[in-house]
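Protocol step 4 of 6: structure prediction from sequence.
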Amino acid sequence: MKKFLPFILLIVLPCVGFASENNTNRVNLMIMPLKNMTEKDNLAGSENYRILFFGPVYNFVQIIPGVSLPDRDKLLSMKFHGSNITTFAALNPSDFIIYGDYALKGKTKKDQKLYINLYVWSQKLGAVFFQKSYTSGTDFEVLDAIDNMLEDIVAQTLQKQLDVATLQFSGFRIGNEKYGLYINDKYISDVAGNGYSMNLKVLAGQKYQVTLRNLSTTAVAFDQTFTPKKGEAITIGYYAVGVIDIPEIPNKKSKSVYDLYLIHAAETNKVSEKTILSNIYAGRDYTFWLIEDKTNYIYTNTFTLHDKETVKIKPVVKGFGGFSMRLNLNDGLLFVAYGDYFWNNWFYTGILLGISPVPLIGDWGNAFPGEQFMLSMAGGIDIGAYILGSRGSQGFRLAAGVSARYYFSVIAPELLKTSMVFSPARSFVVGPHVMLEYEFLMLSAGFYFAPLANFETYQFPITLSLGVRFHF
């Protein structure tokens, strides 16, 4: 199958650089969104820069090992103003509080610029110890301003030089699966769709544990740690895959041809029974077809294959349950008819009725003058199963079963006109039998236990009969 590929795509693009030492002391930071100080004339659209500044700075700092930050939504919802920093710091203890403001100024859009003020407040000093202003255009220059701000924040709070690397997330093949992306146990974003991509700047020389957690099952799909060097770009992608197990098809007809297909959208692949298909793209729907003799679609199954899941297909030939009739000669009686019901293509239960015309001679003849025959009859049950072949299969078939019969006599209708009280002889037999079949012809042999005279004596009759079988 064309899509059978390894389930993790991991591409590393090395660049020259060096790693910084890991920070061993945990630093508690609070990064507050910059306050919008834009005047009314330029207010339109200026509020967008609040998140534009906050998002990249927060994402970069929160995954640095040894750094603790409050939840993003909590910071965005806090009421804060630089004028009450002392009171705010007392209520929200942190080693450092980063805050500031910005204003969008300019008479025309072409002339507009952003003026940014950044402050770093120290809990240890109880005062602002770093302050800097930045000026930026409103287009791509904003990214340069953010980089400059990050460089100063890292240097002032972590005493590190801003050596930057990049984690590039792309090349995802996950179908309809959805994951949560975590870095150093910090939630970054949801990952959905095959087109997901993101470039994330990180501090070089630090360890970053990248984890993908399936949002449906909570199972960890991917977990790997990277230590990027300065300037290095590591590309990380993921393939969601599963396993499809196709066992042997049971109950096949000996002369039929069976074809198996696995279908996704417009892609159709012929597969084989007794096969395990590994590394199949997951997160999408598949349809399995079993076709008999090129035209008979006898089994179909549509299912969704999830990431790291094993789906076991259970292809079956449609059951041949239904009625069947056997007609036998010399099967303990001259004529015996069986009515069988097959619960599937091999197991049956049935009833039987047999008759034999018995000549009336001796005392029986004297008891019924004018009559030549009476009918000896038997009724019973039969239970059996095929042990070679199955109902409807071609070639030779072998079945075995057990039957129980009750023999009794029914006299010709003239007997009913007499006033004699008649008590005919009765007997009961039970035993196993086997049947060898070919097409509709049948050869049967049975071995029975027959108690007589109220169990005072016993017989063990053996029967050998010919017959035919018809399925309906």
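Step 5 (inspection) to follow. The helical segments are 48-62, 72-77, 85-91, 141-158, 363-367.
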